[in-house]
Write a structure and sequence with these properties.
With 408 residues, the chain is an alpha+beta fold. The protein has helices spanning 2-22, 94-129, 135-167, 215-224, 228-237, 378-407, and strands at residues 33-39, 41-64, 69-74, 81-82, 87-91, 170-172, 177-179, 189-190, 197-214, 244-247, 259-264, 274-281, 293-309, 315-317, 320-326, 332-336, 338-343, 346-351, 358-362, 373-376. The strands form three sheets. Strands 1, 14, 15, 16, 19 and 20 form a six-stranded mixed β-sheet that branches. The protein has a six-stranded antiparallel beta barrel with strand order 2-9-12-11-10-13. Residues 1-23 have low confidence and may be disordered.
């Protein structure tokens, strides 16, 4: 009886095992994730130095009174543009005109005495040669002539000096530029007995921009000069750093003119460890004024055949900086890299990548190390997204049309 009862149970268990074995599910297929990739390329990457600079007038001339006198007139508008030779101040010239007139009269008297002495010598010389005049008379005539010439020359020099002082009563602009505020008012006593500095004229076209570079920048600049002729030329021109600079305007936009380095200070400031560099820039529209702070960028060097990738292709964790690389079999590899430089051109990779490899720039969150990915270029990904949006829009339109038909 016991054997008979067990037989159906064992048969049922065997049938169940056979049924389970026959219903085994196939392995799940993994769908590759869509990612946007860029091919790693090489380029020549310039290395720039960024500094804070200040603009300065290329010429800053003090306008001072050279003679004593009272200011009669001021003929310029403060802050305006003036040209060389343009009248700025008029000093009372009456005392100087009187001196000039007196010396002119004196010069005329000396001229008359000179002419008389010349006539005397001319008259006595033939008489002396014929022994009709004594040696003493002729010598006296020559002496008087020489003294007359000397007196006339002295009077001429005094007149020229007086005329020069008279010209100083018209104070004119020494250069083209912008005139500063007036330091004196009309009626003020100026000169050695009063206010000497009257105003300033600043040349702002071209304009200077000065900034400080580190001693290391100087060392690297000298090392880049591989030839002796380049070093000699730099020392002759007074600049150990060569190149063009670009600056920003107060609204942080780029100034449209580039500047050329014209001077480098031959000594390093021991307090800051920096040395001054000066560049000259065109400023025809006077967009720049002296005393403005600006950002200065200058090319220091460049990296040839650099491995460059976009900044968005990098990620950072405790282990360092890494990228996600799509291999030939479409598997994803998480790879750490060593960065040499970062700039507007992208990230320069010192080690960890080779040219021609594919790095993920979008969709990195969809994959992890070892997974499969379907790499697309940005154009391919955009085309697929556009097609999907179009299909979704058509489907939505179809649904709306069906709903309108049902309502009718």
């Amino acid at each position: 009886m016991l054997h008979t009862a067990r037989t159906p149970l064992l048969c049922g268990l065997a049938a169940s095992l056979l049924l389970l074995g026959g219903c085994k599910q196939p392995p799940m297929e993994l769908t590759p994730k869509l990612v946007v990739v860029e091919k790693v390329g090489t380029a020549t990457v310039p290395l720039y130095g960024n500094y804070v600079g200040v603009t300065r007038a290329s010429l800053d001339v003090e306008v001072r009174a050279r003679i004593d006198g009272f200011v009669e007139d001021k003929t310029f508008v403060e802050g305006s543009a003036v040209e060389t030779g343009e009248l700025l101040y008029q000093i009372d010239n009456k005392p100087y005109v009187a001196v000039v007139n007196r010396l002119k009269a004196k010069l005329e008297s000396q001229q008359a005495a000179l002419e008389k002495a010349q006539r005397d010598v001319k008259r006595l010389q033939p008489l002396y040669e014929q022994d009709a005049a004594s040696q003493l008379d002729f010598d006296n005539a020559l002496s008087i002539l020489a003294q007359a010439k000397s007196n006339r020359a002295a009077s001429q020099a005094e007149l020229e000096e007086a005329e020069l002082e008279l010209s100083y009563t018209d104070i004119k602009a020494p250069i083209n530029g912008l005139v500063s505020r007036s330091e004196v008012d009309i009626g003020a006593l100026v000169g050695s007995k009063g206010q000497s500095l009257l105003t300033r004229v600043k040349q702002v076209d071209p304009i200077y921009v000065s900034f400080n570079m580190s001693a290391l920048d100087y060392l690297n600049a000298r090392r880049r000069m591989t030839s002796s002729s380049a070093k000699i030329e730099a020392e002759t021109e007074g600049k150990a750093v060569e190149g063009f600079v670009q600056i920003t305007l107060p609204d942080n936009s780029q100034y449209r003119y580039w500047g050329d380095v014209s001077f480098t200070d031959p000594s390093v400031n021991p307090e800051t460890g920096t040395f001054e560099v000066r560049a000259v820039l065109p400023n025809p529209d006077r967009e720049l004024l002296p005393g403005q702070y600006t950002n200065v960028r200058i090319k220091l060097s460049e990296i040839d055949n650099a491995i460059v990738i976009p900044q968005k292709a990098t990620r950072v964790d405790q282990g360092g900086v890494y990228v996600m690389v799509v291999l030939d079999d479409n598997s994803v590899e998480r790879r750490f890299i060593v960065i040499e430089h970062q700039g507007k051109e992208g990230v320069v990779v010192k080690s960890g990548l080779r040219a021609g490899e594919l790095v993920i720039v979008e969709g990195m969150h969809r994959v992890s190390h070892g997974q499969l990915a379907q790499p697309l270029t940005a154009e391919e990904y955009k085309a697929r997204e556009d097609a999907k949006e179009k299909a979704d829009a058509l489907e939505q339109q179809k649904i709306e049309q069906q709903q309108e038909q049902e309502q009718e």
